[in-house]
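Case study 2.
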Amino acid sequence: MRRVTAQQCATTWGVSPSYARRLLAPLQAVGRDLETGALLYDQTQAAGLGTGRKAGHPGAISAHFLHSADGSRVLLYTGWTSVEAHQEAAEAGHHDEGHEIFSSTPGVRPTGGGGYHLHRSLSLPRP
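Prediction:
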């Protein structure tokens, strides 16, 4: 049996390591890599998880649903590598399925959205 790590699956599938770990979550790990300590999975089972998934736009970085403290509102916040990448995704129809879900959900009303540009960010010093 050939074994693979989540990192190897992420590279093969073209996704982030954290997303690969989420895809691999239903599988039982078959061991640990002796050098890195990473969980190992049966390659045959893991390969089945990576096929048939929908590939996102390569310019997409993240998507988060933010819930208000009083429970009355939800905000979908997405991150993109550039304004152009977001426009490409919209023109290619990558947003259509998500918009269909939102518009058909009772009580959800679109606000028209808006764009924001990151002015500055902070980073913590590494130990």
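The two ends are 39 Å apart (CA to CA).
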